[in-house]
Amino acid sequence: MPGKPTSLTGRSLVAGAAEGALLFTDVGLSFWGGVDALSGEVIDRHHPLSGEHLANCVLAIPSGRGSCTGSSVMMELISNGHAPAALVLAEADEILTLGVLVAQTLFERSLPVLCIGREAFAALRGQAFARVDDTRLTLFDQPSTDASQGHGTAVFEPEPADATSVELTTHDQQLLAGEHGKAARVAMHIVLRMAQLQGAKSLMDVTQAHIDGCIYTGPASLRFAQQLVQWGAKVRVPTTLNSISVDQRRWRELGIDPALGEPASALGDAYMAMGAQMSFTCAPYLLDSAPKVGEQIVWAESNAVVYANSVLGARTLKYPDYLDICIALTGRAPLIGCHLDAQRKAQLLIKLPDLDELDELDDAFYPLLGYHIGALAGRRIPLVLGLAQAKPTLDDLKAFGAAFATTSAAPLFHIAGVTPEALDPALVLEPGNPIPGINIRLKDLLLSWRELNSARDNQVDVVSLGNPHFSLSEFAHLARLCAGRHKHPDVVVAITCGRAVLEQARNAGHIAVLEAFGVTLVTDTCWCMLGEPVIPPAARTLMTNSGKYAHYAPGLVGRPVHFASLSECVESACSAKASGRLPTWLQPAATLESPAHV
Fold first, then answer.
1. 87: three-class secondary structure by DSSP
2. Between β-strands 203-205 and 332-334, what pairing exists: parallel, antiparallel or unpaired?
3. Domain at 149, CATH number
4. Which ranges in 212-275 belong to alpha helices (H)?
5. 67 is catalytic
6. Integer Cα distance of 135 and 104 in angstroms
7. SS3 breakdown of the chain: % helix, strand, coil, rounded to 5?
């Protein structure tokens, strides 16, 4: 006999009612790179839900993680009918919620989003069916009607009334009233909705924006941008653009299908029509316009957010796609989270093994470490102890931060003695407020190494470099490794980078060396958007030095990956084989394993 239904209550982030089979996981999910925007399949091959389809289920996840573009994927799924019937969270997630709110505004289609807290969330494990009614979640052994198919409704919220919990300036009220045009009015409405959900008491001015919503995820992403242009949208602060989905100048030459090339290029044009700069880079911190310590900005693109907060000491949230452009159109952002001193404190201590006891570290150490710590941190801001003596470079921190942002939902990390706010680590600790700590062992890193190395044979068909976009110093390092050599004729070696850095590298003489080696250079886009034919259809195995791409590639392009240092990537480019060797600094962990684990 069916058991008695169980009811829980929570905070409704988006109102509505829906029911369906409950799809539960206790691992956060990045919708971008983790969920196919056309079909709703979970394509993150490292995730427990890999292969599941989200359409019509009640999806229960602790939170999102990873890419800011998750909001765009959510909006696409709602618009094409492959979204979950409802979303249940342990912790409020701005990225996924924002995607629902934009779908409401643009398409008048939605789904209920409910946050129930961590303790209640744990009780969902093993449950079969669920129904969401605004603030209430009801669990069933059997569907109450036809919940196995999933169905429901979500309430379309009108624009907020004048009475609001957020303090507004006269200018804010003018924007909301439409005195600066329809695009600014819609943008201000979305900013205010998010501010209310986040619990912000007021808004603040920002000095610059970096837009991640220029990534093409499907027709809805282009419709959103073109609708803003039709409404007269113009940015109010200096605004740069993230990588788009194609090399805008060369996508035809590279053999990209016009079905992607044309709308992806048009999406970039739409954002430039709003006044954004033609930067097309996922590493805006490499531009001359990079913000200074303490500067209040609005950046999207997960690796850029983490780098800006952690390495530059600027202040931004991990802004969802579409909220980024809404803030750029208004110049106003919620005064919340990492914009505030108190919200930038460390919440987790991470202690590393004694690095002096290890053989010399190579550049694979930092993305591996960032990937591992991100998974441990979740939404918590970590303070990492034990790296100061290693003196990581800016490229090391870039690689660390990108991998950290892949597995973590936190917008910030501190490294004692290295990052600007933690040069004195006591400054990022709250006096009298002890925080939990974790000791990382070398064998823990070995487990993450094996997770990133998903390839099972030693063949290498493609070497993928530049995720995030290559810096000038990375070009210099690679040119030294490649000088006087030539890649194997059967291996594609491709680097993605921004246009500005490419010209710097060309002027420095690095590009001539790399072209002699046989490298393909791609600007404007990044590896997370590249597929065939840049990756030849016959290619079976990839190799990369990027922890971020090693995680995403198996799901995005359906190929396993070898993860290794830059020098190992060059050796494999020449031989078409991966050595399979562990880095010397990681080898002691393998020798400590028992035979059962070897």
1. strand
2. antiparallel
3. 3.50.30.10
4. 219-230, 258-273
5. yes
6. 19
7. 35, 15, 45
Taking the model in full, what pTM does it have?
Answer: 0.89
> Which tokens belong to 26?
């206790």
**Residue 18 and residue 137 in one domain:** yes
| Pairing relationship of beta strands 298-299 and 209-211 according to DSSP bridges | parallel
Tell me: do 331 and 402 sit in the same domain: no
In which residue are the tokens 């669990």 written?
Answer: 139
| Side chain identity, residue 93 | D
> Helix count (H) and strand count (E) of the chain?
18, 23
593 belongs to a structural domain: no
Q: Is residue 159 one of the residues assigned to a domain?
A: no
Please tell me which residue in 12, 30, 67, 71 is annotated as part of the active site: 67
Tokens of 421: 């706010």
Sequence-distant (≥ 6) Cβ neighbours of residue 585 within 8 angstroms = 358, 359, 360, 361, 362, 365
CA distance 522 to 541: 20
Structure tokens at 36: 């196919």
CA-to-CA distance for 454 and 463, rounded, in angstroms?
Answer: 15
How, if at all, do strands 16-24 and 151-154 pair? antiparallel
Pair (26, 81) in one structural domain: yes
Residues 534 and 522: beta-carbon distance below 8 Å: yes
Question: Which of 549, 547, 571, 551 is closest to 496 using CA atoms?
Answer: 549
Q: What are phi and psi of 334, to 5 degrees?
A: -60, 135
The residue among 406, 359, 355, 399 whose CA lies nearest residue 378 is 406
Which of 310, 341, 372 is where one domain is finished? 341
What 3 state SS string does 466-478 have?
A: CCCCCCHHHHHHH
Locate 489 and state its tokens.
Answer: 């004729």
CA terminus-to-terminus distance, the chain: 47
Last residue of a domain, one of 281, 312, 341: 341
Query: Is there a contact between 491 and 460 (Cβ–Cβ < 8 Å)?
Result: yes
Q: In terms of Cα–Cα distance, which of 36, 28, 25 is closest to 58?
A: 25
Query: How many domains is the chain built from?
Result: 4
Q: What is the pLDDT along the chain (598 residues), one digit of tens a residue?
A: 456 788 999 999 999 999 999 999 999 999 988 999 999 999 999 999 999 999 999 999 999 887 888 899 999 999 999 999 999 999 999 889 999 999 998 888 999 999 999 999 999 999 999 999 999 999 998 776 654 455 555 554 444 434 478 999 999 999 999 999 999 999 999 999 999 988 999 999 999 999 999 999 999 999 999 999 999 999 999 999 999 999 999 999 999 999 999 999 999 999 999 999 999 999 999 999 999 999 999 999 999 999 999 999 999 999 999 999 999 999 999 999 999 999 999 999 999 999 888 878 999 999 999 999 999 999 999 999 999 999 999 999 999 999 999 999 999 999 999 999 999 999 999 998 899 999 999 999 999 999 999 999 999 999 999 999 999 999 999 999 999 999 999 999 999 999 999 999 999 999 999 999 999 999 999 999 999 999 999 999 999 999 999 999 999 999 999 999 999 999 999 999 999 999 999 999 988 664 433 3
Tokens 């969270």, residue? Answer: 89
Residues 363 and 387 placed together within one structural domain of the fold = yes
> Same domain for 114 and 201?
no
- Residue 92 domain boundaries: 6-154
